[in-house]
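[09:14] KT: can someone run the structure on this one? pasting the chain below
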Amino acid sequence: MLFKSLVCCAVLFAPAGPLAAGDTVAVLSSASGVYLEAFSKFQAGSVDKIPYFDISREKLLLPPGTRTVVAFGSKAARQTYPPAINLVYLLAPGYFVDGDKRSGATVKVSMLTPAERLLTGLKELQPKLKKLIVFWRSSAYADLLGDYPSALTGVEVRTVQVKRADQLPGLLRSVIGSADAFWLPPDPLLISQESIKIFRDFSLSNAIPMYVSTKGLAQKGACAAIGVSFAEMGAEASAAVKKLSKGISLPRVIYPANSQLTINVSAAKRCRLSFSSEVTAKAASLLP
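[09:31] RB: done, structure tokens below
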């Protein structure tokens, strides 16, 4: 769907219904799936009913007096918004809005689990984990993953860039004998139906555990996922909006406080992993 740029950085849409009182507006890449799940939690944590606009179907004019936009998804985050309004965006892995070009606050709710929390969680799943490979492809992850090798968890972390999809089989073969496991960040350029099958088959064939960031990818054959739930991201966005409304400054990237563990029992068994009852008790989901 094509969108026309408007003068003065105005964003043009067609009405989705009567606007609620207040100065916050939500923009959804689509009013379905994970976007709607996150928005529902965001709405539940808001004092006022927040109007939302589904840009996959509707064109709307941001109402006068809008001070904060909450964008759900990369498509929503990529829209041109007036630079003076606050922008909180989430569910946009691998995409960053340049806050230096905006006078309003620019805050991303990250899908990444902070390095120390992630690695501590992986050590609980795999106590003998010493060497971990992190694959990435989107350029935005080049600097973002910088904290992972230096995290003080006793795990040696090496990041490997996948520049082209056809490099993947060779890169995976090169880690045999030099890694105890590998982890895939929520990188949209790295993860596709084809690549996740390659990662899964390599993991299960060589008994090298694959860890991911979402329950959906754990269902596709990873041993486990440690990541932020979509509902938790919505709640974090709600908290960010409340702080901005009080004049509290926020960093450009914020991380939800809670992570969710999903364990794929059959994949873990094929990779020779066994979990204590204490570990399985922490899992939000146990997949057969």
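[09:33] KT: thanks! The CA atoms of residues 3 and 121 lie 43 Å apart.
[09:34] RB: yep, looked fine to me
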